[in-house]
């Protein structure tokens, strides 16, 4: 494979949506000049055979246009899927942030409601104490009235 790479055409032809080589650069379509594979298309690192540039030795046969088209479609779908997943992830992160804010708001409201309910309980307790005192005073008033009536009747009938 290395001998075919060395004797391959040094002029690359870029295709749409070529796969990425190991350098994360789009691979070039080249044609073999070897006796074993004359004219056979392959994908290679675009930095290969370029004066002094480091390269990654990426190599893949691209025997037919169908393979190239299939690879292009696969890369396109992969990129679209990745973009879609990134968008979904971003949407989910935004929703999580919104939900966390809502949870914080609910906790604040719960604290306010708890405080209000405690105040209501205290006021209810005060009202119950006042009501009990009022009942006692009514009972005493009725008893005094009854005593006065009894005394009046006793004195009037005598």
From TrEMBL:
Entry coiled-coil feature ranges: 68-102
Domain GRF-type, first and last residues per copy: 21-65
Top-level division of the source organism's lineage: Eukaryota
Transmembrane segments: 140-157
Keywords for this protein: Coiled coil, Membrane, Metal-binding, Transmembrane, Transmembrane helix, Zinc, Zinc-finger
Pfam families: Zn_ribbon_GRF (PF06839)
Keyword Coiled coil in record: yes
GO molecular function (one): zinc ion binding
Name used for this protein in its record: GRF-type domain-containing protein
């Amino acid at each position: 494979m290395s001998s075919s790479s060395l004797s391959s055409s040094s002029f690359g032809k870029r295709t749409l949506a070529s796969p990425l080589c190991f350098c994360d650069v789009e691979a070039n379509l080249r044609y073999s000049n070897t006796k074993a594979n004359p004219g056979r298309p392959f994908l290679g690192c675009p930095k290969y055979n370029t004066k002094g540039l480091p390269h990654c030795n990426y190599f893949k046969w691209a025997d037919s246009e169908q393979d190239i088209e299939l690879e292009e479609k696969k890369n396109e779908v992969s990129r679209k899927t990745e973009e879609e997943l990134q968008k979904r992830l971003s949407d989910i992160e935004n929703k999580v942030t919104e939900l966390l804010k809502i949870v914080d708001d609910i906790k604040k409201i719960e604290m306010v409601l708890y405080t209000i309910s405690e105040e209501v309980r205290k006021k209810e307790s005060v009202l119950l104490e006042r009501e009990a005192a009022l009942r006692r005073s009514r009972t005493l008033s009725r008893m005094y009235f009854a005593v006065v009536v009894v005394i009046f009747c006793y004195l009037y009938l005598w």
